[in-house]
Amino acid sequence: MIKNYLLPLLLFVSAVLSVSLPGCKPREEELQTSGALEFSTDTVKFDTVFTTLRTVTKRLWVYNRNPKAVNVDLISLDNPATSPYTLIINGDLKQTASGLYIRGKDSLLILVRAQLKDNGQNGTAKDYVLKENLNFRTNGQDQHVLLRSFGQNIYLHDNEALPCNAVWTNDRPHVLYNSVVVPAGCTLRIKPGTRIYAHAGAALIVEGTLLVNSPADFVAPSGSKNDTISATNANIVRFVGDRSAEAQYATAPGQWTGIVLDASSRGSVIRYAQIQNATFGVLLYNPKNQTPQPDVTIQNSVLRYISGANVGFAGAASGTGLPGAGVLGLSGKATLENTLFSDCYEYAVLGYGGGDYSLNYCTVANYPAASARDKASLTFTNVSALDSKVKNTTGLTLNVRNSIVWGSIEDEVFFENYDDYKATVSIRNSLLRSKLYAGPADMAATATTAAKPGLANPAYNNLFSDPKFVRLNTLSRNDYHLAATSPALASKTALPPLVPRDLLNLLRNPTAPDLGAYQTTK
């Protein structure tokens, strides 16, 4: 009797399985000729510490919400042959699959495995973020799921508000994703040598206080005149794009948003830091001109490869609608010492809506590669960033001392509505590239021309000739030290306050120091 029922039972089970299992071809009349797939997530994230666990597997569910079956023409990785990811589809280990069927109201499970192999243990540098698309083609439609993992042992900060009084250390890199916020009334301390890698569009938003290499955490050596802190010094805190290790992105600007000091931020200090690949290095965001204004002191730092135009990193828009600048102030206060601005595609320092800006022993050397610049490196206006018809009544204060402002266009300094705040603008003992303001006296506004400062007034002790940097060559790393024939070498009597050591921590000549961030003569 059992044998009599066994064959019909097996046929019944076979029929059920042929209807219900993914991958089995249904009858033609049961196929859906339109409609797309849905996924359990749009990003498969591997946030595990890979230096201790090299292989991790994640699940991705693929749903067919349609009433009939769909034919998945192709499932494939972007780079199947070289991808760090492998797929298990229908129980088979493979990098691509084609001709799979998913029954109506059914699903397909794909296991995704990240295999990072040596993970940098053989001394080879690994990317901090590894991304690849898992691609699906169904009924002529292309869909994608992002696979994301981290190639090194990191601290991940993804769209989070940091705990109050957080401390970032240098034992492993910190990776920023989306917006990372320092809450009002709280402090983020970043210790010497910490590396921060920012993903496309990421921003560090400071509503409280940011302390980078603060004097409490790092004291520069002072026992010898040769106690240098070079560009490769292990104590420098570095903010860079997370793909900057790749040659094509090393100098690309606009890869992430930058550091944003909100209107409530107070007392931030950035010392011995390198900020690059951003839309702006530091944004003082106070468009309503609240008082007191957000403030920052930046010392012995380099801000470079900056642009708001995404000229080097398509799709990484900051979303701010603001131009790029090394320091961008919307009614803020910035004190800058021993700081180098280079390769800023729009502005080195841009002040909107008034504010208070001080540059002492700074070098602006603006020669971004493959860029036709048309913006003055130092640009200031009392007009609001939110409404060009509104002027902030608190005015603008600017002091430039012992500095170099030079670049690829003939006017690297510009003031809008200069007459409104000329009493609080002082540029002295500096070397400037300016044709517009190279007169010996201020010129009042006329019916057809704006007011202009006369920065060549002999009492101001300014220079207007080429500073003769050591090397300006797009085929090699630029060197903004001063050549032996530079007019900025020990040619001026220092205006106070004297900064005893330069950007590299070399002692300055106290009576006749060189202009700019670098001391060349002894």
Please render the helix and strand layout as text.
Layout: H1 2-20, E1 38-39, E2 43-46, E3 55-64, E4 70-77, E5 85-89, E6 92-94, E7 96-102, E8 106-115, E9 130-138, E10 141-149, E11 155-161, E12 166-168, E13 174-182, E14 187-190, E15 195-198, E16 203-206, E17 209-212, E18 237-241, E19 258-262, E20 268-271, E21 273-276, E22 280-285, E23 295-306, E24 325-330, E25 333-344, E26 347-352, E27 355-360, E28 363-366, E29 378-381, E30 396-401, E31 404-407, E32 413-416, E33 425-428, E34 431-432, E35 469-471, E36 479-482
Parallel strand pairs: 2-10, 11-13, 12-14, 13-15, 13-16, 14-17, 15-18, 16-19, 17-20, 18-21, 19-22, 20-23, 21-23, 22-24, 23-25, 24-26, 25-27, 25-28, 26-29, 27-30, 28-31, 29-32, 30-33, 31-34
Antiparallel strand pairs: 1-3, 3-8, 4-7, 4-9, 5-6, 5-8, 9-10, 35-36
Describe the structure in your own words.
The chain has about 525 residues and is mainly beta. The chain has 2 domains: about 20-150, Immunoglobulins (Immunoglobulin-like); about 155-480. About 5% of the residues lie in helices and about 40% in strands. It is built from 1 helix and 36 strands. It has one helix at about 1-20, and strands at about 40, 45, 55-65, 70-75, 85-90, 90-95, 95-100, 105-115, 130-140, 140-150, 155-160, 165-170, 175-180, 185-190, 195-200, 205, 210, 235-240, 260, 270, 275, 280-285, 295-305, 325-330, 335-345, 345-350, 355-360, 365, 380, 395-400, 405, 415, 425-430, 430, 470, 480. A hairpin with a 7-residue loop joins strand 35 and strand 36. The longest helix is centred in the first third of the chain and has 19 residues, at about 1-20.
